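ARCHIVE CARD
SHELF: 3
SLOT: left
DATA:
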Amino acid sequence: MVMTEERFRLMTHLFSDTEKLAWLRLIRSENVGPITFYRLLEQFGTASKALDALPELARKGGRKKKIAICSKSDAEREMTELAEIGAEVIVRDEDSYPPLLSHVEDAPPVLCVRGHTHLLKKKAVAIVGARNATLNGCKFAGQIARDLGEGGLLVVSGLARGVDGAAHAAALESGTVGVQGGGVDVIYPRENASLYKEMTLRGCVIAEPKLGTKPQARHFPRRNRIISGMCRAIVVVEASPRSGSLITARMALEQGREVFAVPGSPLDPRAAGTNGLIREGAHLLENAQNIFYELESLKNTPLNERKYQYFQDVKTTLPGEKELTEARKVIVESLSISPVCVDEIIRQCQISASVVQTVLLELELAGHVERHPGNMVSSII
């Protein structure tokens, strides 16, 4: 049953603690990423039922050893440890979840939140940039953050050194959210320890990975999609041509967000990325008024509202085993290491959508297929 957002919000109280724990268990289970998580909910209605189905799905996908499913005790331990540091879990279908982030196809089903959760509901702009930023770059980022905060906007960044730290520090009075690459309890870099503490007391820190996760390079693109996904616009202050800030800008464009870039000297490598963004069509940023003006012009053209699905009301008829057996070989042979759209698989293989989606779930849980945004999949064998 597809529901309007208003109707959905009236029913959010039906989201039980038991099902919330099941959501945490499901996303912490092996080979279950955000997109697969939502496919499982579409298929089985609840996270609890999806958890029960994981072993058989993985086996049918060709997995030899037992898939690792997050136990109830492990999930309860994580919830308890979060509570002990004044943090909590929020899930995508709760009212406290960042509203714009919920529009993103691969939005985290679960976020760990430490600090003032109410800030997540504010209209937000991200400020990102070089870790080895110039003094002028940090000063400018701080001024933009301060002006945006005074104008009622939330400032979001990645709690890194350089531009991120300057933006957070300047926006503490008005409200700021830091998105961690590791666990919500892991301070990184260590030099930002005092800023992190201030953020937990006066702002908010959020993270997708479980507690204690040390940030690694592969975590940061996933973090960046959250930074851009939470915001209506992002500002890039300084960035080299290979900067992670440019990844954030690219994700913002894919998510339909506005991108602003600060121009700089062509003699400074840290301006190469921002100057390139401007050449490619990003808004040239001189002051915060540029952002307010653009957002004001967009207020009558909001992002498309996500269609909420109250999964517990789903009545799905699963494909029969004979149909699935006939389809598996055909679908596997259609895959390669280059991502392909699921709709293309359905069209080329002449197999029903429900059968294709079920087989792809089996293959992913077995570790043979990888999901990508844009309804794309690729083989990893």
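SLOT: right
DATA:
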Amino acid sequence: MLATNGRMKIAIQRNGRLTEDSVALLRACGLSFEFQKQSLYSPCSNFDLDVLAIRDDDIPEYVQDGVADLGIIGENVLQERNARVHILAALGFGGCKLMISVPQRSAIRKVSDLHGRRIGTTYPTILKAFLRDNKVKAEIIELSGSVELAPSLNVADVICDIVSTGTTAKMNGLRTFCTVLESQAVLVANPAAMRDKKKRAIIDRLMIRVQGSQEASGKRYLMMNAPADSVARLKRVIPSLKSPTVVPLAETGMVAIHSVVAEDVFWDVMEKLKKAGASDIIVVPIETIIR
């Protein structure tokens, strides 16, 4: 049986905006598995872990109840379900905002203007807490889908829904008004699994890989040759994690310099390195950085 096969399990979204990034993260951690959306689980061949593919709304409860030991889920779903789980890490993908949107011509300009309004949402728990914190009394209309249509159908006056780009809101005659929650994907664990010595050891091993993958994200390994007397100039140009590695070459007066550069400043740095005397510049991707 799946639930009693003795292997640890991590639940990820079966099909949605987190699926591709979740699978990519696990593979970047060196886990080898065949992921198929139509299959409930995919066993890792080189790590004591099974990957469960389930509905994202079910992941918090699966992890809370121990059906899965770990899970990757958006903070928005996690907070709405109010599950008792341990958050291990924010993962840096799946970013979105839960926002209140109002009709384009609405007179609503500040949060207090929501008093007495009908707010349609699929996130009643989060919205209720937001209204309470802001001392606003409004009617929450719980919807199951197509939230953006609620104002035009007179089901609600305004809506509270997930916004990625704001395009859908504009297409339905709405403008985003205020942010209720900023969300991204997080890695969570079952509290009992964290207390289990054997499972905790596996979780710690996995976390080293996750953190190493996150450290490497958006970075490139840089190698170049340069005259030894240009090292001081080059060091001022290179935004390294630490001081760059400098190795003498067989050719007298020449050195090899190795460093790590962030992808977003890479081309600017390359131009400056050339001007400072660097040559034979080689750049390679980085899979993992272990601190």
